[in-house]
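During the reporting period the student researcher (J.K.) took over the structure-prediction task from the postdoctoral fellow and processed the backlog of single-chain submissions. One of the processed entries is reproduced below for the supervisory committee.
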Amino acid sequence: MQMRTLIIGIAALLVQEAQGQAEFSKRMDEAKKAYAASKLDDARFAMQQMLQELDILTGKEVLKLLPQSLDNKKANTARDNVSGASGYVGVVVHREYGTASDGTTPQLEVITNSPMIGAINSLLSIPLLGNNQDHKIIKIAGYKGLVQRQSGSNGKDDYEVEIPITNSMITLKAPGLTQDKVIELANTIPVADIAKLVQ
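J.K. obtained the following structure tokens:
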């Protein structure tokens, strides 16, 4: 029974990937036809759609790299999500760990074209601002990151790690855990592998 479930799951992933590639090819053909007909606005729109499809496919590859467990909590893959965002944000890759509904579920997100990049990089480049009671500069896999203290819903401090990679941001939220534990969990994120996909 388990083997059958595994085979069905793999087949579903292959079909989904093939559909994504077909959508990308369709948008490419639309852009070429519109360009050939001197319909530049239509060509631009088709290319924007094509690039969003490419971002979604890249996001799905990033999702495959994320840890299968954090803090002894298994990935809740039923809540995995890769979605295109509106405005200036590109794609949001989201994974949760555990199934608790009390707000203690660790969450990991990768956001391309994150609007927070400038603010985080400013804190990282000025150690005086970046290292204080609310912020701590760390290094994860050779990348500078920022641990920020947040007010938790239970009256205790929560910590969040943000790691900028070019124009993308990796964010780990782990409510209820100590700063040291959150940093330990951040060190399990394959930052270098994710960077290869999103840079």
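The committee noted the following: The first strand starts at residue 69 and ends at 70.
J.K. will present the remaining backlog at the next meeting.
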